[in-house]
Specification:
The protein is mainly alpha-helical and about 210 residues long. It has helices at about 5-15, 25-30, 40-45, 50-85, 90-145, 165-200; strands at about 20, 35-40, 150.
Length: about 210
């Protein structure tokens, strides 16, 4: 999985052709419009959070992908062997080879289907939250710094570094990602302390 995959999924998830974040049309009619742009490819390449997430996904899918490719190679070799020996082996041996070929083809189809399911789960469970985080950060920066419009860098023919908000987005994404676990532990500790103080047991929460 590479940065281009992340970029493509991001724009698909956004469902936007140009603008990433914008104020209302009335606001865009003002005399002065503040416009910025963001480079999603750079975010995928340089954000520690995004790179770590994509690396984890790559590792989780590599074993299954390697298995499918190995069986595909074995299937191709077996089909070549069948064609070479078709006229020289016995009918029983040929049928046994054909049977192995059919079983291997079924296994490849099953493993391939499972790999596709794993990819869809990875997109749903890991990619979509990451995409949401990127878009939320862009929106937050847009509002905080009073941008009227932020567009994707791919459509910018010319733009000075002054209107490139990519670095700010990367820093905010990584800062928020680093703070999230600490916040979760702090919140859990606070709830536990409160429960002790009240003399009541905190309700158990099943881990997701």
């Amino acid at each position: 999985m590479n940065t281009k995959v992340f970029s493509r999924l991001f724009w698909t998830a956004c469902g936007l052709l140009g603008a990433v974040w914008a104020l209302s049309p009335a606001a865009l009619g003002a005399d002065t419009v503040k416009i910025g742009y963001v480079d999603i490819d750079r975010i995928a390449q340089e954000s520690t959070y995004i790179r770590s997430m994509m690396s984890d996904l790559e590792k989780s899918l590599t074993q299954k992908k390697d298995l499918v490719e190995s069986k595909q190679d074995a299937y191709s070799s077996l089909r070549d062997e069948i064609e070479r020996k078709r006229s020289v082996v016995s009918e029983a041996d040929l049928e046994e080879m054909m049977s192995r070929s059919r079983r291997l083809r079924i296994e490849i189809d099953e493993e391939g289907a499972e790999l596709n399911r794993m990819l869809r789960r990875a997109e749903r469970d890991r990619m979509e939250p990451a995409l949401d985080r990127v878009l939320d950060v862009i929106r937050t920066i847009g509002k905080e710094e009073k941008y009227d419009l932020i567009v994707r860098g791919e459509i910018v023919l010319y733009g000075s570094s002054a209107v490139d908000v990519t670095d700010k987005v990367i820093k905010r994404i990584d800062r928020d990602a680093a703070a999230a676990p600490a916040s979760g532990r702090s919140g859990a500790a606070s709830e536990k302390t409160t429960s002790k103080g009240s003399g009541k047991h905190a309700p158990s929460v099943a881990a997701e």
